Amino acid sequence: MVQLSFPVILFFSLFVPSLSLSDVARNGDTRSQCIVTPGNSSDIDDVPAILDALTTCGTGGRVIFTNNTYHINSVMNTTWLDDVEIDLQGTLLWSTNISYWLNHSLPVGYQNQSTAWILGGTDIVFDGHGYGTFNGSGTTWYKYVGSTSNYPGRPNQLTVSGAKGAVFRGLRFVQSQMWTMSIIHTSNAWFDSIYVNNLYDNGDSAQNTDGANTIYSHNITFTNWEVLNGDDSISTKANSTDITIADSTFSSGLGIAIGSIGQYNGAYETVEHLHISNITYEKTTHAVYFKTWTGDQVGYPPNGGGGGLGFASNITATNLKTNNLKGTPFTISQCTTFSGASGNCTNSKFQIRDLVFRDISGTTESADVASFQCSAVAPCEDITIEKVDLRITGNTTYAGEYLCGNVEGTVGFNCTGAVCVGSSATGGC
């Protein structure tokens, strides 16, 4: 049920990353307001009421979820939004009907991924005030899929698709079904003050529980994130350009990922102008790591592929703090291959170049600062590492090894040994 009224409402007219208040819609009309009334039962699907509200007030209006639990029992595709504010004060709780989701989740448009909710449009503000919550009932999924990677039909929690000018802030994501956010074909968007906890109830990690993934997207800013998960904290994938990740804390997962990329045979993809700064890592595997598929296609996405073309360049990471990092801080692996194959780790045509890692301090379990396993066909070029102050956890020794394979042009460090060469989807061997 939707309650419709027409009060004067404060609205944040969108100019990423700054916001200005406005009492009226972009067209000059007073903003309409739709309040979504929950059914208050897991047997009642609140999606029809949500879709009604977004249809009625999704253009020049405001949609309010009150401080209640809303039961999400079916998929949502809401890509028509324009000049809208979504006010989440309660909890959106996804059902555990695995059979339904496996058969009805919506295509994301990349890697044969699917999703529970596609949201898009122009000038969107989605505000959770620090307590509005998405609960994906993920424990059910983590137990169901076990160690299977990219289980077909397992949905991403939320896909921001085709959005132009958007702000998502103050949202909490708890136990997302798979990736928390997939951001695709989106530009000029700001994701601020987001909390993600995709661990089991007992704190154990779960596979494929990324905090966010950018795909075919431009000018995306992530600030003030806190992510606890078992996979990529945030990942930039194909054709991600001008991405900023700043002032955030990542715990227990793999760290910030570039890739995986190069999965589509013959496709030309890039990751450019990625700016990472002021990040704290708590027991993650890496700080920043790259993963590309091999030059050979073996199978098809999501669990196979390879042979992709392109490059990753102009990537900087500065002011990084680590607490008991579990693996090598900076890692490149160009040997991702699934489908049970052991690929050729030196034949990828995807090139990695122009990297700057500066000012990293704290503790790590690895004596290696870097492990760069690059392609012989398209060697890594122009890598800078400066101001490293990493002590090995539990003693007074400092990390100081730099392992290299097919690296040309280093600044601030010398390669001290040969890199381990082997298949990997998580960096290193």
CATH H-level homologous superfamily name of the largest domain = Single-stranded right-handed beta-helix, Pectin lyase-like
Q: What summary fits the major beta sheet?
A: 6 strands, parallel, barrel
Fraction in helix: under 10%
Number of domains: 2
Tell me the Rg in angstroms. 22 Å
CATH class descriptor name of the largest domain: Mainly Beta
Q: Can you tell me the overall shape?
A: globular
Total strand count, please? 33
Low-confidence stretches: 2-21
Main location: secreted
Family: Belongs to the glycosyl hydrolase 28 family.
Subcellular location: Secreted
Protein name: Galacturan 1,4-alpha-galacturonidase B
Q: Care to describe what's here?
A:
By secondary structure, the protein is mainly beta. The chain has two domains: 1-240, 3 Solenoid (Pectate Lyase C-like), CATH 2.160.20; 254-429, Single-stranded right-handed beta-helix, Pectin lyase-like (Pectate Lyase C-like), CATH 2.160.20.10. It has three helices and 33 strands. It has helices at 47-57, 98-104, 138-145; strands spanning 2-5, 11-15, 18-22, 32-36, 61-65, 69-72, 76-88, 91-94, 106-107, 114-115, 117-135, 155-156, 158-161, 164-174, 181-184, 187-192, 195-197, 212-215, 217-223, 226-228, 232-236, 240-251, 255-261, 268-282, 288-293, 309-325, 330-336, 349-364, 368-373, 380-392, 401-405, 407-411, 417-418. The strands form three sheets. It has a six-stranded parallel beta barrel with strand order 14-16-19-22-20-17. The protein has a three-stranded mixed beta sheet with strand order 9-10-12.
